[in-house]
Amino acid sequence: MPDQIQQLDAIEIGNEPDLYPLFPQPPCGPDRPSSYGPADCAAQWTGAANNLSKQVGALKGQKAWYQALTFLSGVNQKIWNVTGIWNGIDEGGFVKTVSQHYYQTNACASLKDQLMNHSITVSEMQSAFGTAISFLKMKRIPFILGEVGSALGIDNCTPNPELYGSLGGTLWTTDLMLHAMTMGINRVSMQQATNANFSAWQPVTTPGVPKAVRGNWYGIVFAADFIASGGNFQVQPLPINASHPNIVSYAGYNSGLLTKLAVLDMEFWNGVNDTGRPAVDIELADLDANITGVRVSRLTAPGGSKELENIKWAGRQWSADNGGQEPKGNNSVLVKVANGSLAGNVTILASQALLLEMVRV
């Protein structure tokens, strides 16, 4: 409504312009000639922003209400250079946010090699977004991931369900979101679409696709509980111990005080021909004197990495039949702290994640 402009986050002008010269296929397209590039996109984008701001009543006189540079995942950065195209788009001061899409791998990929691999996630995200984030920080423009999923389908490929609904896929979702925070990414919007295998839930039953809550939903819940609502929240990645290269940790601070620790064990374990699930002891030391305990919540599934069912967060399990209501119960455990260290044993198993919340006096 025209009198409700404050409810508007941003207007996105165009979507994935890097594909305009390629799709759709003849005789219907493509949408733009093969020569179409950054300068053409910038001119059209700026023209559209000008027209909207002049002709739409609620936007008259408004600046910085538009989301720009919404590129495809895997965009050719050499062609669509952020600095170059920005010079054309930013002249009118219309840009509120900048967005890019991100799918880490393809639907035929290996869960173990492509998603349960923190170093690949870090490398891929840095390669895709590092330059843009550094440049936009100087402009004080938020960078967001406006469409995110673990894997996109490709031709002649039967999608690997482990990439989407498994515990391993859930751990990737958690790792991606927490790492995105450390990079300075302002917001992550996980792609949700009916009948899409990368969606966290299927809201309705359609032919061949039953209503369902999928495993990667739990990664979103974990990240939300890690951020919580304390305000003035910052995230810091912790160094990886060479003795436990699969353990990835993040520290969360509210107003400079340590309030959360997220610990992920990205070791691939599926319980097949195995003598037991590997475990690593968690040790904390030199905690603030007013921390009296640590509340431990666990993201896990009995079958490990490939488990598609029985994934639980703090003992809770969501289902397609509960109407979106949060399940009752919580099996989080409070471990006391004495002299700045844990007074009880805390272990993390392979293919699990722990949220440690500091309890203060």
β-strand percent reads: 25-35%
What Rg do the Cα atoms give? 23 Å
Main β-sheet, in a few words? 8 strands, antiparallel
What is the helix tally? 7
User: Number of domains in the coordinates?
Assistant: 2
Give me the oligomer status: single chain
CATH class of the largest domain: Alpha Beta
The residue ranges in which pLDDT falls below 50 over 5 or more consecutive positions are none
Please tell me the overall pLDDT. 92
User: What is the CATH-assigned architecture of the largest domain?
Assistant: Alpha-Beta Barrel
Outline type: globular
| Alpha-beta classification | alpha+beta
Assigned CATH superfamily of the largest domain: Glycosidases
Report the order of strands and helices. EHEHEHHEHHEEEHEEEEEEEEEE
Description of the structure:
This protein has 361 residues and is of the alpha+beta class. It has 2 domains: 2-231, Glycosidases (TIM Barrel, Alpha-Beta Barrel), CATH 3.20.20.80; 234-360, Golgi alpha-mannosidase II (Immunoglobulin-like, Sandwich), CATH 2.60.40. 24% of the residues lie in helices and 26% in strands. The chain contains 7 helices and 17 strands. It has helices at 38-55, 82-89, 111-115, 118-139, 162-165, 167-183, 216-227, and strands spanning 11-12, 66-71, 95-106, 143-152, 187-190, 201-202, 212-213, 233-237, 247-254, 257-265, 279-281, 291-300, 312-313, 333-338, 341-342, 347-349, 352-360. The strands form 4 sheets. Strands 8, 9, 10, 12, 13, 14, 15 and 17 form an 8-stranded antiparallel sheet that branches. Strand 1 (11-12), helix 1 and strand 2 form a beta-alpha-beta unit. Helix 1 (38-55) runs parallel beside helix 2 (82-89) and helix 6 (167-183) packs parallel to helix 7 (216-227). The longest helix is centred in the middle third of the chain and has 22 residues, at 118-139. The chain starts with 10 loop residues before the first strand and ends with a strand. The mean pLDDT is 92.
